[in-house]
Amino acid sequence: MKNSATIIPVSNSDCQVNSWKSQLKTAFSCAESLLQYLQIPAEEYHQLIDNNPNFAVRVPIAFANKMSKGDINDPLLLQALSVQQENIEISGYTDDPLQEQQDQRPGLLHKYHGRVLLLLTGSCAINCRYCFRRHFPYQTSRKELNNLESNLNYIARHSQIKEVILSGGDPLLISDSQLAELIQKLEEIEHVKYLRIHTRLPVVIPDRVTANLVHLLANTKLTTSLVIHSNHPNEIDQLTGRKLQQLVQSGTAVFNQSVLLKNVNDSPETLQLLSERLFQYQVTPYYLHLLDPVKGAAHFDLSKQFASKLMRQMRSRMPGYLVPRLVREEPNQPSKTLILS
Ligand SMILES: *Cc1c(COP(=O)(O)O)cnc(C)c1O
Ligand code: SF4
């Protein structure tokens, strides 16, 4: 499979680079401008929206274009619009539900056997309202995230690490040339065999999947995979789908993880459509996460009982390979916790 990459042209890469970077710069950064673009009268919803949230709004136009105009309940809009409900304090929902802020080693998380998360940047192309990282002190920790050399040394010293998972924030916010440099350094560490990238960018700005990126992943000796994050079938339009399929066809396994979110994807029909849409482009459903109990996101939460019932409904409708694993992330566990139903 890897060799087929040579058929993918590397031309046009410069204008692609400009395009995804400029889409980042021009992203919507407040609720009002986003609503205006969607032809939703912000005045009518002034009690609902929060136009000055602690966790900023960030929505690139390519993602906004996947929302339907005029619909305040659009499932993609609900994921990105800052609302007053986020300011309600509810016990049990905390700033750091996974207790990751206390980790000793800035920029690296080694919690599970054989694999590490390498955190390349604190920011993302979109700010998802339900994200457990919404309270992380990214601005102050920016310097620490540049701890890369030392983290690579850590990986080199721990021969049980087979897989390096690029995460963040969104690791695909770094440029293709920075990524190429990093891949080269990882290739030099003999025990590292697998490279995985956890990213929402192919969904948020499909143009981020440049010909160069495809080429890079196809040509490393590391076995590559990419785990995207999408929650609703409308996120997987034809452009995103084609980009993901390019990656698959050049030898990178592509998986999807979702978060179960009230009013966004809380029906078996929606989740089935999502799985089918992914599979149409050769992407495999991987995880369905229960919401992390983060402060400001309680209005997205659903009970474990509800989630288990959804899983049973999905299993009765779909082939097993289209049913994601229902999991929850718990502090101090050797893996994600599988929820059986
Ligand atoms: C989710 C996660 C991983 C990857 O887990 P898989 O089950 O292999 O997908 C690795 N490290 C940390 C800290 C994680 O949260
Ligand atoms: S892309 Fe992922 S890490 Fe970034 S805000 Fe959304 S859920 Fe959080």
Walk me through what this model shows.
The chain contains twelve helices and nine strands. Strands 1-2-3-4-5-6-7-8-9 form a nine-stranded mixed sheet. Helices cover about 30% and strands about 15% of the residues. The protein has a single domain (about 100-340), classed as Aldolase class I (TIM Barrel). Helix 11 (about 270-280) packs across helix 12. The chain has helices spanning about 15-25, 30-35, 60-65, 75-80, 140, 150-155, 175-185, 200-205, 210-220, 240-250, 270-280, 305-315, and strands at about 110, 115-120, 165, 195-200, 225-230, 255-260, 285-290, 325-330, 335-340. It is an alpha/beta fold and about 350 residues long. The protein binds pyridoxal-5'-phosphate and iron/sulfur cluster.
Which bin fits the share of residues in helices? 25-40%
CATH-defined architecture: Alpha-Beta Barrel
Give me the count of strands: 9
Total discrete domains: 1
Count of DSSP H/I helices: 12
Kindly, what is the distance between the CA atoms of the first and last residues, rounded to a whole number of angstroms? 37 Å
The radius of gyration is 20 Å
In short:
The protein has one domain (98-338): Alpha-Beta Barrel (TIM Barrel). It is built from 12 helices and 9 strands. It has helices spanning 13-25, 31-37, 61-64, 75-80, 138-141, 148-157, 176-187, 201-204, 211-219, 238-249, 268-280, 304-317, and strands at residues 108-112, 115-119, 163-167, 194-199, 223-229, 253-259, 284-289, 325-328, 337-338.
